[in-house]
Amino acid sequence: MRAIQITELTGPATALRLVELPEPEASHALTGGDGVVVEVRAAGVSFPEVLQTRGEYQFKPPLPFVPGSEVAGVVRSAPAGSPFEPGDRVAAFCFTGGFAELAVAPVQFSFPLPEQLDFQQGAGLILNYHTAYFALHTRGRLRAGETVLVHGAAGGVGTAALQVARGLGARTIAVVSTDEKAQIATHAGADQVLLASDEWKDAAKQQGVDVVLDPVGGERFTDSLRTLAPGGRLLVVGFTAGSIPEVRVNRLLLGNTEVVGAGWGAYAMSRPDYVTEVGTALAQLIADGAVSPIVGAQFPLERAAEALALIDARGAVGKVVLDVS
To answer: What is the pTM of this model?
Structure first.
């Protein structure tokens, strides 16, 4: 089968190779049990894969390895007793191995792909939307009627957060860096869009923000703390800006506010029932029309380096996808 491997830790421009590999075994390396073998139609591309090309992500498989954590496609085989049959359309989180024509995912991280979504949308469903739901609902304790501010609101996580927040009954404010990204955030359902180059924090503070979802970090983090209303929560999802901010805890004391970590992967790995619960909740939000992943740039498998470079340059809008077959 065709696959993309990371062969050296030199960054997205030079680390990747298109190779021919044997088809994978049905067992999944992380769970130890048989998994769902998926004929991949589309693979999601995310910031963790950019970090993996430099050896900067916390999960460091030995070289060479096939990156790619999320796929959508058709089931080739599934373990006996699982809810899947050959031919079923699925979205699946395989941890690694997704940039290939065949991938293996644990049963508990595989989900029926709703008929409303195509394979490209399915490739952007799990990592971003499970992260958004986990951050907002589970860690952020979001309540209907509250106001959510989302940074990086035109990217994969950002557009997912806007849709999930709206689906949970919240009002949403998007912060983006360009007019083009403002259009994407509006399409994703933002009630208001603010440009990062303007005095966004003053405009946001005047309205009272209950929850901030921040996948960016850097200077945005400190400014976000200042926007929070009393009792507000700042959800730390990632650091695409590159720098990890520090908290002056007196700000938390004075405002009765919180900084909350939201690391979906570590939480979900040990809680299969929770993963199923979130999958069910998202399926309902899809059926209700609240969730519909926004697909941005699409590349063929052999151009995976270009897809990663786009994300690395912070030029991506929506979900970047590899069309595999």
So the answer is: 0.92
How long a stretch of residues is the chain?
325
- Determine the Cα–Cα distance for residues 100 and 88; give it in Å rounded to an integer: 19
User: For the domain with range 128-265, which CATH number is right: 3.20.20.140, 3.40.50.720, 1.10.3720.10, 2.60.120.10?
Assistant: 3.40.50.720
Contact 197, 175 (CB under 8 A): no
Spatial distance between the Cα atoms of 19 and 100, rounded to a whole number of angstroms: 9
Helix (H) or strand (E) holding 168: none
Cβ atoms within 10 Å of 325's Cβ, excluding its own: 15
pLDDT digits (tens, 9 = 90+) for 74-102: 999 999 989 999 999 999 999 999 999 99
184 CB-near residues (< 8 Å, 6+ apart) = 154, 159, 176, 294, 296, 317, 318
Instruction: Using alpha carbons only, give the angle 303, 57, 5 rounded to the nearest 5 degrees.
Output: 35
d(CA 165, CA 159): 10
**Phi/psi of residue 59, each to 5°?**
-95, 115
Quote the CA–CA distance of 27 and 284 in Å, as a whole number: 30
The answer to whether residues 4 and 304 touch, using CB atoms and an 8 Å cutoff, is yes
Take residue 314 and report the two structure tokens written for it. 């912070």
Residues with Cβ within 8 Å of 140's Cβ and at least 6 positions away in sequence, in order, are 211, 213, 233, 235, 260, 262
Contact 262, 137 (CB under 8 A): no
Architecture, CATH, for domain 2-125+293-323: Alpha-Beta Complex (3.90)
